[in-house]
Structure formats: C-alpha cells, structure tokens
Design a protein that fits this description.
Length: about 290
C-alpha cells in the first residue's frame, strides 16, 4: 500500500514561500509522554563519568571528536557548555546538564523509532515529493533551564548535504516553546537565497568552507509553539535559537531527512555511515545511494 501525502495546499505554499510551517498537535499527549519517559530512563542509565563530550554550535570545529563522529550510528550524550564548573565537575545533576542526545535514536530505540517511522511522518515527506527518504540523524534537545545553550544562525543543508540539496528538518516540541525559554527563530523566505556555506569533514577534522554571514536580528521572527506541534524546516532556511535563561526547560525531538533517489550524499559530510539507514518508504525505482 503506497504512502499518501497529508499536507494541505496552504502548508505546501508556506513551506515554499516562507521556508517553514507549523503543524499543531502533530504528536499526541501519549506520544510526548512516551518519548519523555523513555529519555528519562536513558539518562538514568547513562554513566556520565565515562564521557564529558560538550556540544557547542559556537565552536563546533573544536568540539568534534571520535565520540561525536561515532554518534551518527549510536545513542550518545552531549553536555551543555556551562554544565561544568572550574573544577571540572558538574554543577547540577546530569539530567539538568545534557544539551542533547543523538544521533541515532530513531534507529536504535524502539520508542523513538516508532514515532520517527510512523505513517504520519512518511505521509508528510510524500507530500513534499520525496521518493526514497531516509532519516539521517535524530536528536533529543533539552534546552536546559538557566544554561540551555544558544544555537547560532545556520542552515541544515550545511551539515547534511546532498547533490542536489534535499534536507528537511522536523522539530517536534515536547514542551511549550516560547521566547522566554528559547524557541526557534527564523528568517522567513531566506531559503530562496540558497546555501550559504558547508560544514566539511577532512583529514584534519571538520571546518566550515567560508565564514558565516552577518545577520540582522530584526529579520528573524519567533516560532512559538505548544507541546506536540511540529515545525517543518526547509534545509536552506536560516534559523537559530537563543540561550535559555529561564527556569523552564524546552525539550524537543528533531529529525533530519534527505532523499536518496536521484541524489548523492556528499562524502565530505561529517556523517559517514557504515550501514545505510532503512528508508521511510520507497515510491519509485530504487537507486543506489552510497553513504
């Protein structure tokens, strides 16, 4: 039985003109509860003495290491920049110190896989014209109260590049996301200007191929959403989020999807898979896709 698209003409128009749109109540209360409880268990079982990998979008070239690279096919834990004191010890419980968990929750954990490979996710990508989509990475993002780090302006295609570009991001709010606790901000229509720069992995590590442009903060608009809402993000859309200086967290689950029919995964992307991911569906003649 084929996958049938479920997006409306208005939603598709918003995606093409603004570079994003919001689907309210995309995830049920039960979906959210299951994912949050599962993450609580994963954090409980995580031995934070085994690793102290810190994630920062301000200094990604220095924060990438083998733990980061290998996370493409594992469930790995990354701390907030401000989680540790000068003595090198956590300043709060580990549950309030993690920046994100990634990047293969959608493959390795049954709760997150159940949502990620659901028919409603597949139907969304069918509406967008994807022929053989794969989820290339997943992240559970915490945006911890008081220390939740800034995510600088960026485009998803910079990190997950295919020829031609096909990355689309799904950002699911697991808690209400507001200006106060660090919601997404985007420049509407910025995807029409194309890809600004790429994040490239070479023998010496990873680096951007050119400096970041300067952005006028007045061009950004906030995307405040209720828990359960899904933000669909074009791969070339300029978006960001600020530090969470409030007392309330802003949990979210994020997926990034690329098409693998008629396009090529760039070999100098940071993700170098040993095993090709299972596609969400196949709707046309399958073409070989080398990761």
């Amino acid at each position: 039985m084929g996958i049938v698209g479920n997006l409306s003409p208005d939603q598709l128009h918003s995606f093409n003109s603004q570079g994003y749109f919001v689907i309210e109540s995309f995830a049920s209360v039960e979906d959210i509860d299951a994912m949050r409880k599962r993450m609580d268990q994963l954090l409980h079982d995580f031995d934070c003495s085994a690793t102290a990998s810190i994630f920062s979008t301000k200094n990604q070239q220095q924060s990438t290491d083998n733990y980061f690279y290998e996370s493409a096919e594992k469930i790995s834990f990354f701390f907030e920049e401000k989680a540790f004191g000068n003595d090198g010890e956590l300043q709060q419980p580990k549950e309030l110190s993690i920046n994100k968990v990634g990047h293969a929750l959608h493959e390795l954990d049954p709760v997150f896989k159940g949502f990620s490979y659901s028919e409603k996710v597949s139907s969304l990508f069918s509406s967008l014209g994807y022929k053989r989509p794969i989820i290339i990475q997943s992240m559970y993002i915490f945006k911890q109260p008081g220390i939740g780090g800034e995510v600088v302006p960026h485009q998803d295609n910079s990190f997950l590049y295919t020829e031609p570009p096909t990355c689309t991001g799904l950002w699911l709010a697991l808690e209400d996301a507001t200006i106060t606790n660090g919601c997404l901000w985007a420049i509407p229509g910025s995807q029409k200007n194309g890809l600004v720069r790429r994040f490239i992995r070479g023998e010496g590590g990873v680096t951007f191929d050119r400096p970041s442009p300067e952005y006028d903060q007045k061009d950004f608009v906030p995307i405040e959403v209720k828990a359960g809402s899904l933000v669909v993000i074009h791969g070339d859309l300029i978006h960001q989020s600020f530090e969470n200086q409030s007392s309330k967290s802003r949990h979210a689950y994020s997926l990034h999807v690329v098409d693998t029919d008629g396009c090529k995964w760039a070999q100098d992307n940071w993700i170098r898979r040993k095993v090709e991911p299972e596609p969400l569906y196949v709707s046309s003649s399958e073409l070989k896709f080398d990761l």
